[in-house]
């Protein structure tokens, strides 16, 4: 058990525990002699943690916490990442926060943009654990995706099933699976449905999105996008984060009034006019 | 931050399917205006007249939101020359795709087009038809074409240093409306209130239609004050 004040690798001092999950325990740490804070994940499964460290090291994006360091001792591996100050989407939902349609679209715009960067990385990567607990909303409304513990390179056979029941695509839980970017798309569908209906997909009854979306009065065009994400067969879903991002942007444009699409605490993009006059029917 | 006012008119006329597409997309990001304005008309051979202009404009609008907007969010100081290069590449891609689409549908796919891409105070004008600036010269307001002449699509970058009024119009308006009529209605040395601009442009559109009902008419005016 790692306690407050423990020194790791003669460099990092544990400040406080932040949480515990299937892939390890997470702590807030500082550097000896420095004021900066970091997040540190400790795990006895060093192989898994090293894989996560490799993936984090590869990603250089404003949507993911930056890789700082990896340490090991006899018992644990320690992955040190940039500290992301904010609140998880799960905490906001648990606290009763209700998101407007516009806010949901902004969140999904950011999440799908993040996934798009992973899927189109020079070594394409899939996250495989997209869920509200792994989406951090920062004070200025920016979004960070955390916990690459289940992530893998596209086309690499997973030795171990990864993901969270309720959000994970069916193919993620098959033995010897090789889930692709479509699995992240599935999770986005679950997440978007949760944000719009308030129904946690991890709690029974399961897979009731079709009925719930209709009964909650979610617009038909939005329902279509979500249900396409939730197709059981991967090839029937949007192929990757970029394709889903485009659809989210289409939904945003269709929302236009002379209005504002706002982040949590600031204005990001103001859509002023979208006028199309033609006899040609857009696809 | 610069101020922008815009208005658009599209009158279908008595045609079955109009070959004219007019589109105006305006977004504020990084405290700057990002605008795409296009007037595009297919050279109609009767089989699917609405297709060429509609398809091209759809491609340009998709590019605007999926590529230009995210780039402008990341790089607020994006220079006009870089925008011009992106626009040229996108134009070539859109034309290629249109030609392939036209082959499949067995449709003629030529267009006339004029457009403006505005980012803050810099702009790229493009088209094989005129892109006008309404200005005063020797005490008389004039429509001045800022694009190089030619039959193929040309591109012109520029900077908005003082109040500028861009004007795009369809073939019918050029042929039917006299320059004086347009200038009398639209020309102003300062901002016209947007509602007034919309009303005046709407009246011009209807006036065009009243003179030749079998043609579609369309126009966009975009006023920018840095």
Keywords:
heterodimer, A: 283 residues, alpha+beta, Phosphorylase Kinase, domain 1, Transferase(Phosphotransferase), domain 1, 7 helices, globular, B: 226 residues, Phosphatase 2c, domain 1, 5 helices, 10 strands
Lateral arrangement of strands in the main beta sheet of chain B:
1-10-9-6-7
How would a crystallographer describe the biggest sheet of chain B? Answer: 5 strands, antiparallel
Distance between the termini of chain A: 57 Å
User: Oligomerization state of this entry?
Assistant: heterodimer
Q: What does the largest sheet of chain A look like?
A: 6 strands, antiparallel
Helix content of chain A: 25-40%
Count of the separate structural domains of chain B: 1
Number of strands of chain A: 13
Alpha-beta content class of chain B: alpha+beta
Helix content of chain B: 25-40%
Classify the fold: give the CATH topology of the largest domain in chain A: Transferase(Phosphotransferase), domain 1
The number of distinct helices of chain B, counting runs of at least 4 residues, comes to 5
Tell me the name of the CATH homologous superfamily of chain B: PPM-type phosphatase domain
The figure for the number of domains of chain A is 2
Indicate the radius of gyration of chain A in whole angstroms: 20 Å
Judging from the principal axes of the Cα atoms, what is the shape of chain B? globular
Query: Biggest sheet of chain A, strands in spatial order?
Result: 1-2-3-4-6-5
Which H/E pattern describes the elements of chain B? EEEHHEEEEEEHHHE
Name of the CATH class of chain B: Alpha Beta
How many helical elements of chain A? 7
CATH architectural arrangement of chain B: 4-Layer Sandwich
Describe the protein's architecture and organization.
The complex is a heterodimer of chains A (283) and B (226). Chain A has 283 residues and is of the alpha+beta class. Chain A folds into 2 domains: 7-82, Phosphorylase Kinase, domain 1, CATH 3.30.200.20; 87-255, Transferase(Phosphotransferase) domain 1 (Transferase(Phosphotransferase), domain 1), CATH 1.10.510. Helix content of chain A is 30%, strand content 23%. Chain A is built from 7 helices and 13 strands. Chain A has helices at residues 46-58, 89-94, 101-119, 181-197, 209-215, 220-229, 241-254, and strands at residues 7-8, 12-21, 24-31, 37-43, 67-72, 77-82, 87-88, 125-126, 135-137, 143-145, 152-153, 261-262, 267-277. In chain A, the strands form 4 sheets. A 6-stranded antiparallel β-sheet of chain A has the order 1-2-3-4-6-5, with helices on one face. In chain A, strands 7-9-10 form a 3-stranded antiparallel β-sheet. In chain A, strands 8-11 form a two-stranded antiparallel sheet. In chain A, a hairpin with a 5-residue loop joins β3 (24-31) and β4 (37-43). In chain A, α4 (181-197) runs antiparallel to α6. The N and C termini of chain A lie far apart (57 Å). The model of chain A is unreliable at 262-267 (pLDDT under 50). In chain B, the strands form 2 sheets. Chain B has a 5-stranded antiparallel β-sheet with strand order 1-10-9-6-7. Chain B has a single domain, classed as PPM-type phosphatase domain (Phosphatase 2c, domain 1). With 226 residues, chain B is an alpha+beta fold. Chain B contains 5 helices and 10 strands. The mean pLDDT of chain B is 87. Chain B is globular, with a radius of gyration of 17 Å. β13 of chain A pairs antiparallel with β2 of chain B.
């Amino acid at each position: 058990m790692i306690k407050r004040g423990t020194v790791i690798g003669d460099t990092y001092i544990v400040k406080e525990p932040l949480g515990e999950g299937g892939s390890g325990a997470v702590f807030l740490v500082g550097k000896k002699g420095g004021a900066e804070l970091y997040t540190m994940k400790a795990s006895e499964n060093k192989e898994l943690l090293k894989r996560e460290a490799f993936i984090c090291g590869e990603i250089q994006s404003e949507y993911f916490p930056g890789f700082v360091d990896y340490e090991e001792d006899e018992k644990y591996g320690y992955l040190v990442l940039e500290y992301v100050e904010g609140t998880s989407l799960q905490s906001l939902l648990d606290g009763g926060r209700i998101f407007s349609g516009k806010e949901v679209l902004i969140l999904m715009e950011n999440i799908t943009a993040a996934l798009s960067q992973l899927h189109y990385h020079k070594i394409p990567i899939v996250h495989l654990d997209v869920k509200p607990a792994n989406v951090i909303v920062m004070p200025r409304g920016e979004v960070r995706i955390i916990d690459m513990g289940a992530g893998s390179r596209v086309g690499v056979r997973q030795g171990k099933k990864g993901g969270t029941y309720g959000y994970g695509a069916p193919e993620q839980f098959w033995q010897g699976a090789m889930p692709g970017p479509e699995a992240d798309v599935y999770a986005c569908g679950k997440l978007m449905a949760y944000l719009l209906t308030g129904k946690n997909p991890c709690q029974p009854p399961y897979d009731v999105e079709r009925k719930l979306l209709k009964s909650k009065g979610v617009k038909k065009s939005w329902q279509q996008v979500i249900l396409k994400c939730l197709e059981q067969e991967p090839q029937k879903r949007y192929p990757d984060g970029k394709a889903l991002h485009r659809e989210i942007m289409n939904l945003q444009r269709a929302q236009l009034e002379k209005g504002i699409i706002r982040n949590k605490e600031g204005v990001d993009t103001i859509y002023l006019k979208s006028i199309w006059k033609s006899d040609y029917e857009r696809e | 931050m610069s101020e922008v006012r815009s208005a658009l008119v599209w009158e279908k006329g008595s045609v079955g399917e109009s070959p004219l597409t007019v589109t105006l997309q305006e977004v504020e990001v990084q405290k700057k205006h990002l605008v795409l304005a296009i007037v595009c008309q297919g050279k109609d051979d009767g089989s699917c007249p609405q297709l060429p202009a509609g398809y091209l404009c759809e491609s340009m609008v998709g590019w605007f939101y999926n590529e230009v907007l995210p780039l402008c969010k990341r790089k607020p100081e994006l220079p006009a020359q870089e925008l011009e290069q992106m626009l040229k590449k996108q134009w070539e891609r859109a034309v290629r795709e249109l030609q392939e689409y036209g082959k499949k549908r067995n449709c003629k796919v030529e267009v006339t087009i004029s457009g403006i891409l505005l980012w803050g105070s810099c702009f790229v004008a493009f088209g094989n038809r005129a892109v006008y600036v309404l200005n005063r010269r020797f005490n008389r307001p004039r429509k001045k074409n800022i694009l190089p002449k030619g039959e193929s699509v040309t591109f012109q970058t520029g900077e908005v240093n003082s109040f500028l009024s861009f004007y795009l119009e369809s073939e019918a308006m050029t042929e039917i409306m006299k320059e004086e009529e347009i200038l009398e209605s639209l020309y102003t040395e300062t901002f016209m209130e947007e509602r007034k601009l919309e009303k005046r442009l709407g009246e011009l559109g209807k006036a065009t239609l009243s003179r030749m009902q079998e043609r579609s008419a369309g126009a966009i005016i975009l006023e920018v004050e840095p």
